[in-house]
Amino acid sequence: MEQDLNNKNKQYPEGHFLGLWMGIGIAIFSGLGVAISAIAQNYAFIGIGPAIGVAFGLPIGQAIENKHKEQGRIRPLIEKEKKARKNILYIGLALFLLGVVVFTLMYFMA
Q: Which helix (H) or strand (E) segment is 74 a member of?
């Protein structure tokens, strides 16, 4: 019972529910993209699943975030969290660029 009371007063960082629900949406609808691409026999449609997942997850996450913000349960990011998010962004961009370079080299070498 005491754990229930502590959970009601828990503070969440800004953007917590947006990321959570976008991830849930992508996980749920990725299978839909695979099914659509298999039915259409065109694997270009495989990316439609995650896009639909983001389209569903974003408004759900935003609604939950707004509800918690009205209750005063959303706190601003601390400096450590801002640094971590910035580092994750840089790592993601580096991996993306590495992938572009590798696939470009594979395309022109073949």
A: strand 74-75
